[in-house]
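COURSE: Structural Biology Practicum
ASSIGNMENT: Worksheet 4, Part C
STUDENT ID: 0417
INSTRUCTIONS: Below are two proteins. For each, the amino acid sequence is given first, followed by its structure token string. Answer the questions at the end about the second protein only.

PROTEIN I
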Amino acid sequence: MTSAALKPGLFRPNLVRQAQAWLLLLPALIFLLAFTHLPTVSTVWNSFFSTSAGTPVDFSTENYQFLLEDEVFCQVLDNSFWYAVVTVPASMALALAMALWVNSKLSGKAALRLAYFTPTILPMISVANIWLFFYSPEIGLFNQILEWFGSDGYNWLGDPDLSLPSLMVMTIWKEAGFFMIFYLAALQAISPELYQAAEIEGASRFRMLRRITLPLLMPTTLFVLVNAILNAFKLVDHLFILTKGGPNNASNLLLYYIYENAFSFFDTAYAAALTVVLLMILVVLALLQFGVLERRVHYR
């Protein structure tokens, strides 16, 4: 190393650039610390307290002990599991099918894309009210259609066996159009020369889908999967309008159960313990997604 390289003046531009970079990052870091890390630490801390009249007292682990004995929590966890297992793959598969369709040589593609994407731009409360009309026992659209076939219809949201599946159908309808946009953008980024070369080799459409389209869509699939799982565990708006977790907690989901304990029962410490459980579930799912699925992702 030469003596010129050791002169202090040569380090100043580098230090200035580093200081500028940190100053540019500072607003984002402040928001990240204030609205992500500090609330997470505070939630974990509050989960180890019992609650008396809305005030945390008595440091203990009784909230986590009560989790194991809480039958409602077990039911809510089971509901959330099946809700995610059904809605995530179904909405992703439907989104991919719609993207493949509107990306093909089809007349009226613009109107079809708009029709698919319309449910996404609707407010969640509006969507819930629309589907509340569909599911209404006497005047609902679904039961009126069933009357044409001689059926008395169903109490879609009042039947414990139908309330959660009814929520799943509404979620798939709303989520598929949103995920379709990402798949459509990824499909349009694939070079047509790949398909032309495959056609010359005599590959069928199914083989091109399996060997070209799906592997090149894996980065988008991973992105969509992360968002779909997050959406599956953060549903709360629709439950306010449709079922409020009923009947008898048959459609209650984890985030809504957290809301109930925090703002209806004012048991903030137990709600914090439930939130920690939700965070741990999301962490485990994130590790599985990025630790296992990312190995199959082919970045271009």
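PROTEIN II
(use this one for the questions)
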Amino acid sequence: MEGLGGDGPSTAAAAALNQRRHEASKLFQFYLDKSTPHALHRWIGTGVLAFVYALRVFYLQGFYIVSYGLGIYLLNLLIGFLSPLVDPEMEPSDGPMLPTKGSDEFKPFIRRLPEFKFWYAITKAFCIAFLMTFFSMFDVPVFWPILLCYWLVLFVLTMRRQIMHMIKYKYIPFNIGKQVSPQKKLYI
């Protein structure tokens, strides 16, 4: 009855494993936090990862379903990145909203999906997709041009809707230079 009290070797091994997992999680979070201000370097690394993934899929001539799923997920992330936190069409809010008229007060654009979380989700998605290419059960035989056409149509329709939303509510989801209120612009 030695194992019932919780003093056995399996409990000690589980505690040691939990301790190692906690230390690894803290170390990972430390380096993730250190990478936050280095946006350009983070995106370059993700670009390299995407290029390596594309090369692997190209040389294997397979895993098109994985790539299609990755493309759909990336499109979903892009929509979250380009969308405002509070959508004026969906939910009225007491907090900061997008200005709808030229006379409205200037309010900064707040994303539904912040840049860091956008980058992290994309990087994680490419890592998972890359790992999936090592397992043949994910290599489902499909006619890839059809998947590409489906994805392109979905991308065009979704981006068209998003751009129309941007035009209707007059917001630009990118920071270009210093943000200045339209009423306070100085003309020299």
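ANSWER KEY EXCERPT:
Q1: The chain has a mean pLDDT of 84.
Q2: The helical segments are 9-35, 39-60, 64-82, 115-132, 144-169.
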